[in-house]
Write a structure and sequence with these properties.
Belongs to the asparagine synthetase family. The protein is of the alpha+beta class and 590 residues long. It has three domains: 2-215, Aminohydrolase, N-terminal nucleophile (Ntn) domain (Glutamine Phosphoribosylpyrophosphate, subunit 1, domain 1), CATH 3.60.20.10; 223-364 and 409-488, Rossmann fold (3-Layer(aba) Sandwich), CATH 3.40.50.620; 519-585, no CATH class. The protein is 38% helix and 16% strand. It contains 21 helices and 18 strands. The chain has helices at 16-24, 77-84, 91-102, 169-178, 229-246, 263-270, 289-301, 317-325, 341-347, 357-360, 377-384, 403-422, 435-443, 446-449, 453-462, 464-467, 483-505, 519-524, 528-536, 549-560, 567-585; strands spanning 2-8, 33-34, 38-39, 43-49, 60-62, 66-74, 113-121, 126-131, 140-144, 147-151, 191-193, 198-203, 208-213, 254-257, 279-284, 304-309, 350-352, 427-429. Strands 1, 2, 3, 4, 9, 10 and 11 form a seven-stranded antiparallel sheet that branches. A six-stranded antiparallel sheet has the order 5-6-7-8-12-13. The chain starts with a strand and ends in a 5-residue tail after the last helix.
Amino acid sequence: MPGLVGYTDRLKKHDSSMLSNMRNLLKYFDWYIDAELYSDGIVNATQTHLGIINKTIAPHHMSNRFSIWIEGEFYNQEKLKAKYNVLSTTDNELFLNIYNSTKSFKFLKDIDGYYAAALYDNQKKQLYLITDRYGFKPFYWGLINDNLVWSSELKGFLGHKDFKCVIDRIAVEEFFDFGHQLENRTWFESIELVPPASVIAFDIDKAQVTIENYWSWNDIKFINESIDEAEIADEIGRLFKQSVEHRVNKNERVGISLSGGLDSRAILAATPETHTPLHTLTFGKKDCDDIIIAKKVSKIKGAHHHVLDLNSKDWLNLRINGVWGSDGSISLLHMHGSEFCDKYKSYMDFSLNGFAGDLVCGGSYLNSNNFEKKITHDIIRKKTNCNKDSFVFNDWYRINKTDPYFVNNRVRRFTNSGLIIVSKYVENKIPFFDNDLVEFIYAMPDRARYKSNIYNKMLLRTFPEYFRTIPWQSTGAPISCPDYLVKLVSFKKKLFRRLKREAGRFGFKERNPVDYTDYPEWIRQEPARGLFSEILLNKSSLYPEYIDSKMVHGHLHDHMTHKSNHHNELCLYLTFEVWLQQIFNNRFRQ
């Protein structure tokens, strides 16, 4: 990140200044590296990036015919070169060499990567937009006056002179219902995300678009015979360590955002011992459980652990910038740790992230009534309270599993937003979405993953010193504990919270060593209190065009006077208003 921008110009109306303006909207710092402003009179494209990966000149050309721009990286280059018998030194070159030799995009299913790409064939007058298997590298597209326009960030379209910025009312509904948009919808009418595992082909002469999936979940073949859980756990452990090793190269500055959970701890444990120095960073209130646990596991690894104090004074201001950086895709309430991106950059170039490990390995979205079932609208309603029946479950979803829906919506549209913000400073790597690991895990029966059964076994067998005696922040007990002890510890935590709330009613305050934030109370304190009031009560606010201002004012009043907690709603309101000000009035962008 930040990424790619471009457009076709069939009538040759625009000069290079428009392309430069689009790119500048993705450029957060002067130290970013800009690619050339490419134009052959019809196709105009460029890129800006962090200068950490794919440092070669972009675009990469071949045979005076093909030009390619890639944002991101591949992790299995040697395997690809061996399978397709090609030579290359960069991902751009590798992509074009395989495509040129195979004359198709079938090879894309073999790429283990985290990337988006734009490919131009000037002979066929075809432009292709390509996403990785899961579409985690954001890539937006739309047709404007019969021209294809694309950008790695939604804000890039604001630099196109023919773009008319109209807010999608359904997107507003989804944002306030779920905290994010669904499927490929964006804030802007007529602009969508490129679907995961997809190739969008644009015929320039005909101004026609076709979209094809090159991979679907149905490509995964189920394990039908009975399984030995110990053997399965060992194989998952082997594949997970292999995934981390593929994402950690010598002489790279690698770090881990380490919480008190299981997923980031597993990555720390799997990071090769030869990779030093290794930095871990944990944010939260002073002496919270996350920090205590992270400090213990960092000591085992010999990593340099850094504590980032999250408090009532400085949690909000930088999150206003995060709204711009995330294209308003997530409530600022959930931008945990975004205040410390500059710290991340000072210790690392690559951040290993435990992104969605609980879903992939732990089956966190599984329901025992839905084992080995295709996703349906009824399942979605029961799990998410989403009453929409408008989802089109295309070939990408074609598998007797419900998880693909949650990967594509909850993970891709919500969880991923945190990575998007961090990606303005460092490159992210997400080991739990390694192709071999995902294919093996989803070949298993759902019951094996249910309630983290096989995941916990893998962690205890593969990394015992990290998990056998050190507690999990979520329960307060190690995952090796029997269920009855875990329930006892969880009950104790809930009781403590309740007693603390009751004591607070009578003026007694007690330090809470469990939670790493206290957003409801922080919003009532300055400087957040003043900022919420200033923006949401302003007569020039833009949000009343889309949502009921009386409701917003009522929630603000009731929260500030302790009548009720509306911190979630208030942060959604503030995020929405800031985003509207950013795109329509050029405010709050810095």
